[in-house]
Structures are given as C-alpha cells and as structure tokens.
Amino acid sequence: MSTPVHQNHSESDARHIGQIFFQRVEELGAETFIRLQKDGGFEEISWRDFGAMVRGIILALFGLGLAPGEAVAIIGENSFQRACADLATLAGGFPNVIIAPASSDALLLKVLQHAKCRAAFVDDELGVGRLLNLQGQLPELSHIVVMSQNRAALPRCLGFDELVNKGHTDDPARLGTILESVHANDLATIMYTSGSTGAPKGVMRTQDNLLSNITNGGEIVVSRRDELFVIVLSLNHLLGRFGFLKSAVSGRTTAIIKATELDVDLKVIESLAGTAMAVVPRVMQRIWNSMLDRSDNRPRWEALEALDQKNGVAGLDDAEKESFAGRQAELKAAARQALGGRVRYISYSGAAMPARIMRFFELAGIPLIGAYGSTECGGVTLCGIGENRPGNLGKPFPNVEVRIADDGEILVRGPTVSPGYFQNPEATREVFDPDGWYHTGDLGALENDGSLRIVGRKKDIFYCADGSNIYPAFIELQLESDSFIRQAVLLGDHRPFIAALVVPERVQIAKSLGCSADVLTDQQIKITLDQRIARLNARLEHFERIQKFLMMKEDFPLEVRSVNAFQKVKVDRKKAAEHFQKQIEEIYAAPAEELRL
Question: Which of 363, 391, 417 is the last residue of a domain?
Fold first, then answer.
C-alpha cells in the first residue's frame, strides 16, 4: 500500500503535472485510473497503485544517482510501465525523451547522443540489445530499465519491478521535497521532430508548456466519476500522450487500447463504452469502415448520403424527407451502439478529417472535434461542438495568441509555445522570434468569427498525421534516382499517410523484363514499381515510408513539376493537389493497408 503524500499547497498553486497527479492519487485512491487492453480483455490499475509505482520510480532514479535535469529516454509501446515512466520522469524533474521503438538504430543513436540520456526505459530484451550494441557510442547512458521484466540479468539493466521496489526502500516523505523542487520553467520533455535532411531537432517543452496545454488558460476541470476516455493511439503519438497526461491531471479514468492505430477492433471499443475518444483521421477511417461493415449499415448510409446530397441541391419532397428522417434515426442508433452507447464526442488532430466521415458523424449526432497545433506550439485552436467545418480549424484557446504575418504565415504566441530547440540556437532563431512568436510555416487566414483556416504551407515540409515532419523533396529525389522511376510527386502533408504519384521509366522496366516497351502491361509495371518502392521504404524511417502509389500514364505538366536552369526540381504542391484532385481523393479514400494502386 502506498503512503499518502501530503501537499502544503492548493491545486491552484501547483506548478506541474506531477504535483497535481499525486493530489488526484490522494483524492481517488482505489478508483480505477487506467484500463489497459491485454490478452483479449482489460487489466485495471487504481490511482493508488499507479501512484505507488510512479513514486517508486522517482525515488529509485534519484537513488541510482541521476540528478534533476538529466535526460531519460522512454522507448516503448503502450503499457502501464511506459505510462508510469512518463509520469515519473516528468514529476521527478528528469526531462524525458520519447522515442518510438520503430525508429532506426541510426535515429535512435542520434537522439540519445544529442539529449545525453543517462537512463533509458525499453520494452524488452530486444530493446536492451539495441542499446547494448550502441553502448560504445553512448558514454552517458548508465542504466537501462526493461519494462516487461521483473528482474533483468543483463549488464547495466534493471527489471521494472526491481526498479520500483528499489524506490520503495527510500523514505516516502522525500517525494514531497522532490515535487516542490520542480519549477514551472524547468525542461520537462524533449520531443524530437523528424528531419530527412539532417539531424532531428529536439523540441523543448517546459513543465508550464505541458500544463498550459491542459488548462488552456482556465481552471482545471475535474472529470466526473462516470467518464471514460478511450485512447485509440500509441502513447508515442503527441495526441495520445497529451490525452493520457490530461487524464492524470483531470482525474478521469482512461482506457488505452494496446493494439493501436493499424489494428483497431470495433468490438473492443464497443465493450468499453467510453464517453470520449482520441483518434487521428487514419484511425477514424478504420473505425468508420468497421461500423459500415456491420449489418446493413453501409447501404443505409449510402442511401442517406444520397438524400443528404440531393437535399443540399434541390431539396426533398415529403416522402424523401420521411425516408431521410427514418434512415438518420437508424444510423444514429447503429453508430452509438457501435461505440458503446455513451460517447459524447471524439477529438482528433494531426491531419484533415475526410468530409464524408465528418458528415457521417454529424448526421449520427456524434461530434468530431478537430484541433490545430504542432509539437513546437502545442494545441492552438479547437473546433467546438457544432462548429466543425471542412477547412476550418476552430478558434484559438484563451491562453494562445494567433496572428497572420504579412506574407500569410500563421504566427503563434503563448505559454504553450516551446522555448526552442534543444542545444540548437540556429534552428531556434529560424522559427522563434525575439517577441515570442513561433513561425509555424503554415499559411492561413482568420475568419470573421475569429476561427482559423489553413491555406497551405510556406515551406516544402510535410506535417504528418503521426506528428512527424518530413522533407518530401528528399524522398522524391531518392525515388527519381531509381532507374525504373522517371518522375515522382510525394503526398502526405496533413494526410493520414505518405503516398506518391509515380511516372514509370517504361523502357528500362521493359529491358529488365526482357520485352519491348510496347508490349509491357500495366500489371508488370505495377509489380516492378511495388518492388522498387518497397526497397526504398526499407531505407526510410517508418514515418517516411510510402504506403500507396498511383502509376501515372505521362509526365507531370510543367505547372506541377519543373526543372530550372540549375537543374533544380521544383514541385508546386498546390498545383499538384488541384490537377490531380480526383486521383488523390481516391488514394486517401481507404486506409493504406486496404488498397495499393
């Protein structure tokens, strides 16, 4: 049983998430904090037991000799242990560095070296092996914690339970002193954004940055006891992690679906009967398709959609209005049942939600609430219930300022904005100005009601749905360096996944197959391109990989892709989106794994 931690300050005086979390532990005790999917069911852990684990980790890290301000890496997928490590390092004043296990060894090494991580939490022995192979290049890394093991027999390693128990031998009263020593402006986490043209940049987030993103300038709202927030994301995703940390502050019970994103089981979501969910559009597409695949929901929706479209153009007669109302009522009942019957809203971020899905849930009476933000500036805007419109990203939060520069770039300022990039003053100066404005690189406009509309990108960088940033020209260059690919245009900015429009080099493909170009079939070309792109994907980071491609019959028009006198290729992303609108919509009409064009 954990020992209560008595704070001598009120909640309004709390400077960071850790302080507030331990207040919730005292208040909620034996009530369920987290439900985690495992082996066909769910394991539950109470606030008290979770708090005891977090306390143990904090005290153990100090016992191992780590000093406040020294970085700790967390390299793992959804688990109680991974969530504990996140909260413990934040609460203890150890800036944590979240790294997806799917990252390459090269990227892993760059991040660990740059952040000078003293300790690392990994999922299993495979994760340990990766770090031990790199240990000669990581002199600062002194401790590895294996989250899936009680004890670890490997060098410099501790099992998770072993670490927690080590902390429980320390004086529990010490925790209050540690929590008090962490200040609002202290570095809380370093979140590395992916860069295809150089070293990744570490976005610094202070304790106040994180808490300000939860409060949004208002008082902390404590959740009702019957609320259940469902995270259908990896905790490595910005939105998934933010949802978990908000739960730790607001006192809400949270279910974390372990088989995330690419393997979503609608039956699991229905059985949970959550009151709210956090998703990204590619996950929402899978949920939506699973709902339509049930019973006769798909023909019911298609009939309702046809009536809805007709109503928007020519109106409906009395019989059609009656049919519309009946089908809508059936759709509402089916959609709510599929999500467990209690859902009040679904929040999403990271990419644009397809208009059909938005309209489906609007007709079903389940609000989809979109947001705009980035790793550097946190959440900026939110579409409230009933305000969600295609292309519109809602109004700024009360504690955030938004203005549009003379060139149309969106600028953001406020307590949620990062102080800059870790140990990278040059990159910091490029996008954070002396007056505190973060230059997002997005072009936008403010509507008459104060809401924000995105127009495009100022620079040729893709903001991807998983929170990563990639440089499309770098990948296009690699595609076009292949002798079987003549031209390529990458897709994926604010989209669910990376895709490509590809012009094949037919003559070279024919030669490789021992035939002439005039008898070459489309199927032969597609198979060849599929193999070549798969080979390229093996060299790319997981967030850069091309999930779909569309074979083009002829070269891109000059307005889309041109080469200047210095042989520099220029792709006009806006023109490409306009010229190939139909093809691009087809690519993103279904999740990546369900179709390869």
Answer: 363
